[in-house]
Design a protein that fits this description.
- By secondary structure, this protein is mostly helical.
- It has a domain of about 35 residues.
- It is about 30% helix and about 0% strand.
- It has three helices and no strands.
- The two termini are about 30 Å apart.
C-alpha cells in the first residue's frame, strides 16, 4: 500500500485537509465496526480472572476515556 501511494519516495507529503480524509463516513463506520469487534467484557466469576475477591476490593480503569460515561447503543 505504501509503495502504491508513493510514501517511500515522498513520506511526508502534506494533506490539504486531513479531516476530509479521516472523518469520511466510510472511515468512521469502519472504525466503529472495528471497535465493536474488539470489545471484551470480563466477568469475575472465579473461572476466568485471577483476582481473589477476598483480597482485591478495587481495580483501576485507566486511559483517556476512563472517566467517560458509557454510551448505550453506540
Amino acid at each position: 500500500m505504501k509503495m502504491r501511494e508513493g510514501l517511500f519516495d515522498h513520506p511526508y507529503r502534506p494533506l490539504k485537509d486531513p479531516d476530509s480524509v479521516a472523518l469520511k463516513a466510510e472511515h468512521l463506520a469502519a472504525s466503529r465496526q472495528a471497535s465493536r469487534e474488539s470489545i471484551v467484557r470480563l466477568k469475575n466469576s472465579g473461572d476466568f480472572l485471577p483476582l481473589d475477591t477476598t483480597r482485591v476490593k478495587t481495580s483501576a480503569l485507566s486511559g483517556p476515556n476512563a472517566d467517560a460515561e458509557p454510551r448505550r447503543g453506540a
